[in-house]
């Protein structure tokens, strides 16, 4: 059935305008500031009630939600994360690993393969491998017993099992074999991201020359900027092609750092992520994550030694915080939707325009999700 969303407020060229949107067969086929009266017989009318309508958000880095960790080897955990993503305004996501044994990683990949196309909520856009080729000196919450040097033979095995599902891999390029792996992955069309890395400015520049083009949770798990040793972050700031992930949860990045990243890179090269563990939408408590005991207090997840262990932020909360920290609403929306779609090479998502998928999110004035639409269908989680 054709659908008409009326009285929707959207951000257009930094201006909030009221529009009416026609949806047919899961696609946006009309966007108009004028009242639509023609051809709406047998049309379902959805009144947005002047709430903010945005493109479905895309999370390129999430590990779990609602007491489910996607590395636990079950399809159900991936389905629960899919649902929780949709509840919080995220309509596509990358299933993200932590460093593990090869057996556990291949089991996760198998579960993703069985879930793709059967998602109960947000759609799986692919897999993001965060590790295991990470630097122990910058391991953060990654379990050191699983960290190892880049191994192209092992990567060939992983890709032979995952096929085209692997979209992004986070590595430390300064490790032995790292530069060779960067070249190998780029030839495969996989996004090479850097983090959990001690790369110097020069090493990072070389990795960018070889094809690395993304930074995972920028500023976290990497050397900080020093005026005589600028390091990875400054190298990334200088490279026009390099995009950055930002965990905007009020914990991982100071608001001034968020503004610095935004002012240097702009919304076209900065993406909002959750980096959420299974405590997202589950609350404070004790969890097992990446082989570690993690304690969550007041929404902040830490290891016993105080190390931050991912986050509990949701995409709609990250969007709200971005605006509160000084990012324009128009750009914050872009950082959550259009920019990740472009980085991942996903066509037809991330914008409200004719021909695009009807992946849409309606938000109230406090950025709470009123409803989430995927492929033209409003998600119904009432059974939960």
How are the elements arranged and paired?
Layout: E1 2-12, E2 15-24, E3 27-32, E4 43-47, E5 52-55, E6 57-62, E7 64-65, E8 68-69, H1 75-87, E9 90-96, H2 102-115, E10 123-130, H3 152-162, E11 166-171, H4 178-187, E12 191-194, H5 201-210, E13 214-215, H6 231-238, E14 243-247, H7 255-265, E15 270-273, E16 285-289, E17 292-297, E18 300-302, H8 315-324, H9 329-336, H10 338-344, E19 360-363, E20 369-374, E21 377-378
Parallel strand pairs: 1-4, 6-9, 9-10, 10-11, 11-12, 12-13, 13-14, 14-15
Antiparallel strand pairs: 1-2, 2-3, 5-19, 7-8, 16-17, 17-18, 19-20, 20-21
Helix pairs in contact: 2-3, 5-6, 8-9
Q: What's the CATH first level of the largest domain?
A: Alpha Beta
| Largest sheet composition | 8 strands, parallel
Number of domains: 2
* Share in β-strands: 25-35%
Rg over C-alpha atoms, rounded to the nearest angstrom? 20 Å
Overall mean pLDDT: 96
Using the coordinates shown, work out and report the CATH topology of the largest domain: TIM Barrel
Distinctive features:
27% helix, 384 residues, alpha/beta, 28% strand, globular, Urease, subunit C, domain 1, TIM Barrel, 10 helices
């Amino acid at each position: 059935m054709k659908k008409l969303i009326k009285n929707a407020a959207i951000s257009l060229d930094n201006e909030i305008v009221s529009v009416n949107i026609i949806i047919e067969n899961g696609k946006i086929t009309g966007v108009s500031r004028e009242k639509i009266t023609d051809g709406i017989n047998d049309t379902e009318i959805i009144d947005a009630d002047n709430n903010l309508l945005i493109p479905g958000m895309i999370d390129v880095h999430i590990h779990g939600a609602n007491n489910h960790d996607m590395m636990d080897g079950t399809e159900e955990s991936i389905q629960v994360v899919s649902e929780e993503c949709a509840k919080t305004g995220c309509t596509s996501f990358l299933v993200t690993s932590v460093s593990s044994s090869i057996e556990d990683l291949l089991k996760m990949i198998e579960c993703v393969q069985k879930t793709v196309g059967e998602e109960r909520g947000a759609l799986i856009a692919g897999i993001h491998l965060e590790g295991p080729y990470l630097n122990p000196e910058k391991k953060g919450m990654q379990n050191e017993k699983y960290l190892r040097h880049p191994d192209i033979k092992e990567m060939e095995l992983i890709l032979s099992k995952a096929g085209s599902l692997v979209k992004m891999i986070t590595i430390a390029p300064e490790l032995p074999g790292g530069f060779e792996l960067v070249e190998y992955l780029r030839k495969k069309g996989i996004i090479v991201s850097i983090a959990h890395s001690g790369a110097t400015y020069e090493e990072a520049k070389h990795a960018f020359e070889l094809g690395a083009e993304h930074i995972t949770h920028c500023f976290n798990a990497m050397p900080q900027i020093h005026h005589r040793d600028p390091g990875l972050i400054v190298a990334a700031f200088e490279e026009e092609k390099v995009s950055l992930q930002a965990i905007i949860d009020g914990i991982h990045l100071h608001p001034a750092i968020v503004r610095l990243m935004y002012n240097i890179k702009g919304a076209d090269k900065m993406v909002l992520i959750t980096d959420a563990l299974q405590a997202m939408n589950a609350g404070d408590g004790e969890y097992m994550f990446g082989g570690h005991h993690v304690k969550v207090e007041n929404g902040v997840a830490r290891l016993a030694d105080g190390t931050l262990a991912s986050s509990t932020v949701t995409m709609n909360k990250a969007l709200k915080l971005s605006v509160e920290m000084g990012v324009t609403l128009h750009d914050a929306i872009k950082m959550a939707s259009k920019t990740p779609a472009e980085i991942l090479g996903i066509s037809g998502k991330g914008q409200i325009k004719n021909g695009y998928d009807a992946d849409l999110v309606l938000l109230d004035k406090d950025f709470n999700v009123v409803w989430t639409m995927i492929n033209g269908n409003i998600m119904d989680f009432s059974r939960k």
